[in-house]
Amino acid sequence: MTGAEFLSLATLIGLAILGLALILVVVRIVIGPTLPDRVLALDALTTVGLGFVCVIAARTGLMLYLDIAIALALLGFLATIAFARYILARTAANRAEDIRARAGEEG
């Protein structure tokens, strides 16, 4: 087995594994019972997409795909931070609403 054949086989196996991971992540996004579960699944989806881009870069030999991978990683990181801030703000608003409701019941 030559190096090119091994690389071709390894990238095919990698794409198959990433395809399975993609299916599992999409299932998690759909059935995730809570918002944080869905946010983590979206972060995993970004990671799987990053894996696809890197494997395709290795398969084709085009290093331009690595620039796309870097941009995708940055975008995924920023999206995760934005979702985390949204969840924290939503949780704080819910807590404040609960405190006001309890104060209204007591007073």
Structure description:
- It is elongated, with a radius of gyration of 21 Å.
- The chain is an all-alpha fold.
- The mean pLDDT is 90.
- 92% of the residues lie in helices and 0% in strands.
- It has helices at residues 3-31, 35-60, 64-106.
- It starts with a helix and ends with a helix.
- It contains 3 helices and no strands.
- This is Cation:proton antiporter.
- Belongs to the CPA3 antiporters (TC 2.A.63) subunit F family.
- It is found in: Cell membrane.
- InterPro entries: MrpF/PhaF-like (IPR007208).
Q: Note the main sheet.
A: none
Overall strand count? 0
What is the count of DSSP helices, taking H or I runs of 4+ residues? 3
Order of helices and strands: HHH
Helix content: over 70%
The CATH C-level name is Mainly Alpha
Find the CATH topology. Helix Hairpins
**Estimated radius of gyration:** 21 Å
Q: What is the structural class?
A: mainly alpha
- Give the termini distance in whole angstroms: 80 Å
Compute the average pLDDT.
90
Morphology call: elongated
Based on the structure given, which CATH architecture is correct? Answer: Orthogonal Bundle
Ranges where pLDDT stays below 50 over 5 or more residues in a row are none
Give the tally of structural domains. Answer: 1
Approximately how much beta-strand content do the residues carry?
under 5%
In oligomeric terms, what are we looking at? single chain
Family: Belongs to the CPA3 antiporters (TC 2.A.63) subunit F family.
GO cellular component, one term: plasma membrane
Membrane topology: Multi-pass membrane protein
Subcellular location: Cell membrane
